[in-house]
């Protein structure tokens, strides 16, 4: 068996991902963080609500390590300020494969011949609000250029697909990650919650 999850509370516990994290955490789940009232006693707070929900949560925290899975226009200044007293990790994708995809993109971009083009394509279910996704924005960072074009698809019940095209004359490389089960994000959140306890105070953006 792996290392047990720390005692955790979830902000956004009624959403798709929040429910999955709570189920995977089992006895380590301390309870939901509501819009008001006390925050359950815990070792880590996980936010999977929204950018606006996160902004409302931050002033209520009192030194708990914070794992952020929300995406969109996050309150970066407030996150930096809270990071002065506790470790904060902003992770747009909790899967195990996406960090490897980021490394592959960085390595490939550094080895490309001159004149090749790079584009990012991402697809999610029709209920996802932000576009491009937080993962797509992180992949754009990995390309080294903020002007890298991104294309977003919102269709059906697609869980999550991210593809980076590296295209040159007469050939193309595709680097791709596909999530086939939502549970990978919940399991990844528990991994990150464990790792967060080992990090120093500050804002961490892998």
**Structural shape:** elongated
Question: What would you call the structural class?
Answer: alpha/beta
Q: How many H/I helices?
A: 6
**What is the total number of structural domains?**
2
Q: Describe the biggest sheet? A: 6 strands, parallel
Would you identify the CATH H-level superfamily of the largest domain?
Answer: NAD(P)-binding Rossmann-like Domain
Q: End-to-end span in angstroms?
A: 26 Å
Q: Mean pLDDT, as a whole number?
A: 96
Give the number of DSSP strands.
10
Report the helical percentage: 25-40%
CATH T-level topology of the largest domain? Rossmann fold
Write down the Rg: 18 Å
Strand content: 25-35%
Throw out a few tags for this protein.
206 residues; alpha/beta; Rossmann fold; Dihydrodipicolinate Reductase, domain 2; 2 domains; six-stranded parallel β-sheet; 10 strands; 26% strand
What can you tell me about this protein's structure?
This protein has 206 residues and is of the alpha/beta class. It folds into two domains: 109 residues, NAD(P)-binding Rossmann-like Domain (Rossmann fold, 3-Layer(aba) Sandwich); 83 residues, Dihydrodipicolinate Reductase, domain 2 (2-Layer Sandwich), CATH 3.30.360. α5 links the parallel β6 and β7. It is elongated.
Layout: helices, strands, pairs:
Layout: E1 8-11, H1 16-25, E2 29-33, E3 44-47, H2 51-57, E4 66-68, H3 76-82, E5 87-90, H4 97-111, E6 117-124, H5 134-143, E7 150-154, E8 160-168, E9 171-179, H6 183-196, E10 202-204
Parallel strand pairs: 1-2, 1-3, 3-4, 4-5, 5-10, 6-7
Antiparallel strand pairs: 6-8, 8-9
